[in-house]
């Protein structure tokens, strides 16, 4: 048993804050659910539940025929046109390679076009509308998993969401649970202080709970699973958020009512819109997601039907169904393709759908929001993890029992990242063909008798028409979204009016074209790294609007710039027509450093905002919940929890220290005689310290976490004098 050292002579009694909330349990009593680990190799069809309301279970075959049949027809036409382009004379092996790569890449954009076209008409006809809710029957929990986030941001969002739900008059049906996987000791203490302050603010019956997990096993999936297995039995449903999520009370209540009205629903996904973004790159993303996103999401929802997907947040889930069927197995082998599943949300949707529950989206449900990374480098960091997670799905896509639409969702995710190296290969093959035309010696004598030399030739008129068709199909979904925004008087006015919306769309298309080749190389590099066996890890996402130092930008993009210069010079020397054809790609790569620098600049983004460009309707008419969350965040920031030293905060506040100890799990953390090196070092430093300042300086982050998890070491910490006693 650990022994707490006696208080030292000269220790001053700190001033305590009176946290009445500290005397209330941080979590409700446990109501455990069993969450068995699922198998990808074994499944029996008879284990799939039968629909409770079969008449509502309709597969949208006609919509799927339109999307996939139309995409296939477009792909066949494009492939035939490309074949005619390259088959003017005898076709070479490089031209056949170009034909194959073009067909694969064209099929990808053709499918996106037909899905968006379906979504365009769906939005016009009002597909997927959610009904208003007047009453609810069951209890639902709003769960927010966090990992080293700003406590001011997190708890302000939770408070704003709770206020909004209470305003619906149905607030008694909801609890709120912050489940933390934080590994930074100062952030952990800040979370606890913000939690206690929020409870003080709300008073009795706050129904807000907080749990910190000692080890972030299996990361976010493990965090949610830990909550479900320990407290899931209290709740019929759970609304899962992300750390940057914000949802109105009306949206949450409607999601809940939709699930209560549909006994076959396992997951219902909302469409989160991006808000609160001000850097240049983030504003481009915000505008694109708001104007084009609903069209794309509606098309996806329409052809998916009840075989939809889950994006990991801003969705409601039937808790017991999730517990019974979504226990995530580890994949055999080491990362990046083995180990725990990174992109768990797709897999959870697949597993719950396999069990006979439906998964679908309500794209027209308003009031669901999120944020996005502030710069190109920030999004590439997140994208690297997503890339690994989606390529990892190549080992899951063939699992037994999955429905065909589920496999299509996996294939779409995988192709989303393979498209970049395939595009890169198509560019390289195109350059080699032009190089062959201009510099290779014609082969006059081949195995087959011919009167003419064999070299690659093209039909320039067909090539130009095919290029125009490709660009039209590529840009059509953006045009559909812009038209629908312009048709809606309310959205058009809130977005700055017709002229500004059109100019904003042109700006977004132009800079998307510049950023595209940079992302192509970044994603291609990610794919190659993963194929070589490099694991990504899991870094916290940067959410503020602070710019990245220029030296880091140069380091990340210098290779892209060099490749752009070499490609541009080579293309110009080979043929001016090749240089003209590749100029958008060349310009984007050559300007990679200044473009990446500009992407994270707050001043550039705010300049566009002042001139009402790249405006979204949510900026023209800000949602009340976003304004309230920003207001509450400012109040939490004044408290300074995120800027404080966690050890000093605990040392100086006995009530906080008591609350922290109550939140720690009980039970012996180690066996007697087993000495943990980090704990031994931390204890030695605390014994040797003469003041709290000594301890704060000497203890490393890992040792601080050991102290915060150990009641005996916290007692040692509390016994330290605040300042060195004078003789």
UniProtKB/TrEMBL annotation:
Topology term for the membrane: Multi-pass membrane protein
Superkingdom, taxonomy of origin: Bacteria
GO molecular function: hexosyltransferase activity
Known pathway: Glycan metabolism; osmoregulated periplasmic glucan (OPG) biosynthesis
Places the protein is found: Cell inner membrane
GO cellular component, one term: plasma membrane
InterPro entries with a match to the protein in the record: Glyco_trans_2-like (IPR001173), Glycosyltr_2/OpgH_subfam (IPR050321), Nucleotide-diphossugar_trans (IPR029044)
Keywords assigned by UniProt, alphabetized: Cell inner membrane, Cell membrane, Glycosyltransferase, Membrane, Transferase, Transmembrane, Transmembrane helix
Domain Glycosyltransferase 2-like: 239-456
Pfam families xref list: Glyco_trans_2_3 (PF13632)
Stretches for region Disordered: 1-28
Family under the similarity heading: Belongs to the glycosyltransferase 2 family. OpgH subfamily.
Official protein name in the record: Glucans biosynthesis glucosyltransferase H
């Amino acid at each position: 048993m650990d022994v707490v050292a006696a208080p030292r002579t000269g220790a001053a009694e700190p001033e305590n804050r009176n946290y009445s909330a500290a005397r209330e349990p941080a979590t409700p009593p446990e109501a455990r659910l069993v969450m068995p680990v699922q198998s990808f190799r074994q499944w029996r069809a008879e284990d799939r539940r039968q629909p409770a309301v079969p008449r509502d279970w309709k597969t949208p075959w006609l919509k799927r025929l339109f999307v996939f049949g139309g995409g296939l027809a477009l792909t066949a036409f494009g492939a035939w046109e490309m074949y005619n382009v390259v088959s003017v004379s005898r076709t070479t092996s490089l031209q056949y390679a170009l034909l194959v790569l073009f067909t694969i890449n064209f099929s990808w954009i053709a499918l996106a076009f037909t899905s968006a076209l379906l979504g365009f008409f769906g939005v016009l006809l009002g597909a997927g509308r959610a009904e208003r809710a007047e009453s609810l029957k069951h209890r639902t929990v709003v769960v927010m998993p966090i990992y080293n986030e700003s406590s001011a941001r997190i708890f302000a969002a939770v408070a704003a969401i709770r206020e909004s739900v209470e305003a619906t008059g149905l607030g008694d049906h909801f609890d709120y649970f912050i489940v933390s996987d934080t590994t930074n000791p100062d952030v952990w203490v800040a979370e606890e202080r913000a939690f206690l302050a929020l409870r003080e603010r709300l008073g009795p019956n706050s129904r807000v709970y907080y749990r910190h997990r000692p080890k972030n096993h299996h990361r976010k999936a493990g965090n949610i699973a830990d909550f479900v297995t320990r407290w899931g039995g209290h709740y019929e449903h759970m609304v899962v958020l992300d750390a940057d999520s914000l949802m109105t009370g009306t949206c949450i209540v409607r999601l809940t009512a939709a699930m209560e009205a549909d006994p076959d629903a396992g997951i219902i996904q909302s469409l989160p819109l991006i808000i609160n973004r001000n850097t240049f790159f983030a504003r481009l993303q915000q505008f694109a997601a708001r104007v084009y996103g609903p069209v794309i999401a509606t098309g996806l929802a329409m052809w998916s039907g009840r075989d939809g997907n889950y994006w990991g947040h801003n969705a409601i889930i039937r808790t017991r169904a999730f517990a019974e069927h979504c226990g995530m197995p580890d994949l055999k082998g080491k990362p990046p393709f083995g180990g725990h599943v990174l992109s768990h949300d797709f897999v959870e949707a697949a597993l719950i759908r396999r069990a006979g529950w439906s998964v679908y989206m309500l794209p027209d449900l308003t009031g669901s929001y999120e944020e996005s990374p502030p710069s190109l480098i920030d999004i590439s960091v997140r994208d690297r993890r997503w890339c690994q997670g989606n390529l990892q799905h190549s080992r899951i896509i063939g699992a037994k029992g999955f429905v065909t639409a589920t496999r299509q969702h996996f294939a779409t995710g995988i192709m989303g990242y393979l498209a970049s190296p395939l595009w890169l290969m198509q560019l390289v093959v195109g350059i080699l063909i032009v190089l062959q035309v201009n510099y290779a010696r014609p082969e006059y004598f081949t195995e087959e008798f011919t009167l003419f030399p064999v070299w690659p030739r093209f039909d320039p008129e067909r090539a130009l028409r095919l290029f125009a068709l490709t660009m039209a199909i590529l840009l059509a979904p953006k045009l559909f979204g812009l038209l629908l925004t312009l048709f809606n008087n309310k959205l058009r006015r809130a977005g700055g009016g017709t002229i500004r919306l059109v100019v904003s769309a042109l700006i977004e298309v132009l800079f998307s074209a510049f950023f595209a080749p940079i992302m192509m190389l970044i994603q291609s590099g990610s794919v190659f790294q993963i194929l070589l066996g490099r694991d990504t890890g899991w870094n916290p996402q940067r959410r503020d609007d602070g710019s990245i130092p220029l030296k880091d930008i140069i380091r990340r993009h210098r290779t892209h710039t060099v490749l752009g210069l070499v490609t541009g010079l080579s293309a110009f020397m080979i043929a001016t027509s090749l240089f003209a054809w590749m100029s958008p790609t060349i310009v984007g790569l050559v300007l990679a450093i200044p473009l990446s620098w500009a992407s994270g600049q707050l001043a550039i983004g705010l300049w566009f905002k002042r001139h009402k460009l790249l405006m979204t309707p949510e900026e023209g008419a800000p949602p009340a919940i976003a304004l309230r969350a920003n207001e509450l965040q400012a109040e939490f920031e004044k408290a300074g929890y995120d800027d404080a030293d966690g050890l000093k905060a605990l040392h100086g506040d006995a009530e906080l220290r008591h609350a922290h100890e109550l939140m720690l799990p009980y039970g012996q953390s180690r066996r007697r005689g087993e000495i943990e090196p980090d704990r031994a070092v931390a204890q030695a430093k605390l014994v040797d310290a003469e003041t709290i300042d000594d301890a704060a300086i000497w203890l490393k982050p890992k040792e601080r976490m050991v102290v915060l998890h150990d009641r005996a070491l916290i007692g040692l910490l509390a016994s330290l004098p605040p300042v060195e006693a004078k003789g």
